[in-house]
From TrEMBL:
One of its GO terms (molecular function) is glycogen phosphorylase activity. SUPFAM superfamilies: UDP-Glycosyltransferase/glycogen phosphorylase. It is an enzyme of class 2 (transferase). This is Alpha-1,4 glucan phosphorylase. It comes from [Clostridium] asparagiforme DSM 15981. It catalyses: [(1->4)-alpha-D-glucosyl](n) + phosphate = [(1->4)-alpha-D-glucosyl](n-1) + alpha-D-glucose 1-phosphate.
């Protein structure tokens, strides 16, 4: 309930908005028009708080975190904003009175999909928590013209469709041309000696105007509204060109093109580095604009730039924003006139770096040629950072050239972004305990040994406001009925549910809510896939980006194995199971796309096989994204978290499933380890090799999957079905590449790099346990409730408090209205 919320005014605003924006009366308005009208009405409600929040920050002169990220996977804003202003009931009533259903209106909004997966969604959860906790924070990113592609499934194959998310406008954004800044690319550096000091002047460059758009990030029930600032690129007004370049038609056209292309599209790679020039341009573009702006803002109030880090901290979301380091150095050296040592002191007190992956193919390495051509002055600074860093290595390890080779920022013709980020940051953190240990002891061992004090862990979290309160209203209300609503802003309170876990009536209530949510998802599946699924079957779900290390392939191979068993033994005793997948594959990732086709081919055969009596169903949900994720988590019984141990830095869907009462079927990887620690190993289904075992095998050249293939007839049969046309009669060779990836050392230097066959039996065993466990309804309900009640640790509110305590050192601000 929001006491200040005036229903009558809100209603009038909605009706007026429809009139003013569309020249229609409310009864003539389309749902999309009503969405627009309601969104603007919500903006009206929060605008004063947005202003007041920033006034308060100014007044307090509060230290601010800038969360710098190439990705913010925000999803839809309207429903979440209504929840965070605590006016869900009121808005629902207003819309009812006007003859509209709030859920239908929310469905009109396109997802803001300015991110790929985990890393981008984490940034969005962090913004929600920062605002809810009342910490001064900006998210800084790019206003991609096209976000994450929309996925269509045609004939079982993924087809990418551009995501024209801005086509109807974005009601929540505000353009801020007054903060536009110029960003320069290319050209050369001229050195001029003035008063005995060298000046570095970039000339012959191309530039674009960076123009920010602000989006409100609304705290839950606390009047705080923070800002996500995303930058658009516009051509520099030709009249602003250097006198030298004025009238240079060619250059004007080139700059116009640069501006258009730079923010055109989000790179759809997840955990995979693509060394594209445009990507580096995007990185420097939004970083230069954000850092310039942060410095300007600081200088409006402060004299001495050397104290910058008292008021500002830059958190680098992976290495993608690492040019922050040389860009800040450039501004301090070239524009503020600091000495190198002064500038370095400021920079290293301001920047902190988060690592999200150990996958070597995700490490950013830029060819010197490209880097220095695009960012000539920045490259000079990187060279100097590298030179001094190597000196540091050598004084620490005299004569040890191996160390230099392994740790240098520039080596082998490449600029290594992670090494620069580590060298220049005062904090380096991993995103789950296991991941941080692997960083310290394996991947970044040399760096950890040289500067152990920088390394720390911040286990990821998720926002319960979106993933329970908004996504699962039935369960949210039930929880609140039982224990009150403190969990909304203090998730550990949810532990109070534990006493109800063994209560028969509560178990019934809980399972009934799960059942209702399964009906809701079954309806969605019927509408989108045309497949009937039985809400009484076990909903076994794997939704996440498609990547070999996440092993969707192992999941579908196991489905094939189950199907074979059912065919052999039609009377097999088995609880009906619905396997649900959702995953986008990077557009250029052939094997991942083929895996999607395999899932859909298997689904086609199984779903149309009358002989198995609907005991097995397979569904691939098209276009998995934040908005349908909310429905999926709410309806899940089993959460598939089956990455090869050591590969998944944290995972965050594991936490969203747990919050919604699904049981984890997973490996001891990422944050699964901590989930099991919280809920107890007996309330999850853990299988497979440990990260230590995996790493040991990897260091010894892998293993031989042929042995398994030759000795395990069930596995052999499944693999043969990949190449005998069993699931692709029209093209028996279709899945040959997948078969080869598992067995054929010729196709890559190792077979089955992700230990799918090695873990298969233990995975199948775990599934068997799920089948047996589900028959005991009381045990299952108890376990599900215990999962919910033990998920307190995994709120992003806790994660943010840890970042604040150990890294950012911010103070909470109160906003009175
Ligand atoms: C790099 C260079 C060029 C183009 C793209 C990229 C790129 C883009 C996105 C590299 C990596 C990503 C995304 C990584 C990611 O999402 N990592 C996930 O981060 C989550 C939040 O910490 C973790 O929970 C996941 O375990 C981790 O995989």
């Amino acid at each position: 309930m929001n006491k200040g919320f005036d229903k009558a005014t809100f209603k009038r605003t909605v009706v007026d908005n429809v009139k003013n924006m569309f020249r229609r009366t409310i009864d003539e308005a389309t749902p999309q028009q009503v969405f627009q009208a309601v969104a603007y009405a919500v903006k009206d409600v929060i605008i004063d708080e947005w202003i007041a929040t920033h006034k308060e920050y100014e007044k307090k002169d509060a230290k601010t975190v800038y969360y710098l990220s190439m990705e913010f996977l925000m999803g839809r804003a309207l429903g979440n904003n209504i929840i965070n202003i605590c006016a869900r009931e009121e808005v629902k009533e207003v819309l009812d009175e006007l003859g509209f259903d709030l859920n239908v209106i929310e469905d009109q909004e396109p997802d803001a999909a300015l991110g790929n997966g985990g890393l981008g969604r984490l940034a969005a959860c962090f913004l929600d928590s920062l605002a809810t906790l009342g910490y001064p924070a900006y998210g800084c990113g790019i206003r991609y013209r096209y976000g994450m592609f929309k996925q269509k499934i045609e004939n079982g194959f993924q087809v990418e469709v551009p995501d024209d998310w801005l086509k109807d406008g974005n009601p929540f954004e505000i353009r801020r041309p007054e903060y536009a800044t110029e960003v320069k690319f290319g050209g050369y550096v001229r050195i001029e000696n003035r008063d005995g000091r060298n000046r570095f002047i970039q000339e012959g460059y191309q530039s674009v105007m960076a123009v920010p758009y602000d989006l409100p990030v609304i705290g839950y029930g606390n009047n705080v509204v923070n800002t996500l600032r995303i930058w658009d690129a516009q051509p520099i007004n030709t009249f602003n060109l250097d006198s030298f370049d004025r009238g240079d038609y060619q250059k004007a056209v080139e700059q116009e093109n640069l501006a258009k292309t730079i923010v055109e599209v989000l790179y759809p790679n997840d955990n995979h580095y693509a060394g594209k020039e445009l990507r580096l341009k995007q990185q420097y573009f939004f970083i230069s604009a954000s850092v310039q702006r942060a410095v300007k803002k600081y200088k409006e109030k402060h004299e001495d730039i050397r104290n910058f880090s008292d008021k500002v901290v830059f958190q680098l979301n992976d290495t993608h924003p690492t040019v922050t380091i040389p860009e800040l150095m450039r501004i301090l050296l070239d524009e503020e006139g600091l000495t190198w040592d002064e500038a370095w002191a400021v920079t290293t007190r301001t920047c902190a770096y988060t690592n999200h992956t150990i996958m070597s193919e995700a490490l950013e390495k830029w060819p010197i040629e490209l880097f220095s051509r695009l960012l000539p002055r920045i490259y000079q600074i990187v060279e100097e950072i590298n030179r001094r860093f190597i000196e540091q290595i050598q004084s620490r390890y005299p004569g040890n050239y191996e160390k230099v080779k392994k740790m240098a920022i520039i080596y082998d013709g490449q600029v290594k972004m992670a090494y620069m980020a580590i060298a220049a940051s005062f904090s380096v953190n991993g995103v789950a305990r296991l991941h941080t240990e692997i960083l310290k002891n394996e991947e970044l061992k040399d760096f950890y040994q040289m500067m152990p004090e920088k390394f720390n862990n911040k286990t990821n979290g998720i926002t319960q406001r979106r993933f329970l309160l908004h996504g699962n209203p039935l369960l949210a209300d039930w929880v609140t009925d039982k224990i009150g609503d403190e969990w909304i802003t203090d998730l550990p309170h949810i532990e109070k549910l534990a006493i109800y876990a063994s209560d028969y009536k509560c178990q019934q209530e809980f399972m009934n809510i799960k059942y209702q949510n399964k009906i809701r998802l079954a309806k969605y599946i019927k509408e989108h896939n045309g497949v009937d699924v039985d809400p009484r079957s076990i909903f076994d779900v794997q939704v996440k980006r498609l990547h070999e290390y996440k092993r969707q392939l192992m999941n579908i191979l196991h489905v094939m194995y189950l199907y074979n068993q059912l065919k052999d033994n039609p009377n097999m005793d088995m609880v009906p199971r619905t396997f649900i997948f959702g995953a986008k594959a990077a557009a250029g990732y052939k094997r991942a796309k083929l895996t999607i086709k395999l899932i859909n081919s298997v689904a086609d055969v199984i779903n149309n096989d009358k002989t198995i009596n609907g005991r097995l169903k397979v569904v691939f949900i098209e276009d998995y994204r934040v908005s349908n994720a909310e429905l999926i988590f709410a309806a899940a019984d089993v959460s598939e978290q089956i990455s090869t141990a050591s590969k998944e830095a944290s995972g965050t869907s594991n936490m969203k499933f747990m919050l919604n009462g699904a049981l984890t079927l997973g490996t001891m990887d990422g944050a699964n380890v901590e989930i099991v620690e919280e809920v107890g190993a007996d309330r999850a289904f853990i299988f497979g090799m440990s990260s230590d075992e995996v790493i040991r095998y990897e260091n010894n050249g892998g293993y031989n999957p042929m042995e398994i293939f030759n000795n395990d007839q069930d596995i052999r049969r499944v693999l043969m079905q990949l190449i005998n046309g069993y699931f692709s009669p029209q093209d028996p060779e279709l899945f040959r590449d997948i078969y080869n990836s598992l067995l054929n050392t010729k196709s890559s230097d190792r077979a089955d790099t992700y230990f799918i066959l090695k873990d298969f039996r233990s995975y199948a065993e775990a599934h068997k346990k799920v089948d047996r466990a589900y028959r005991d309804e009381a045990w299952w309900a108890e376990s599900a409730i215990l999962n919910v009640s033990h998920c307190g640790k995994f709120t992003s509110d806790r994660t943010i408090e840890e970042y604040v305590r150990d890294i950012w050192h911010l103070s909470k601000v109160q906003v009175e209205m």
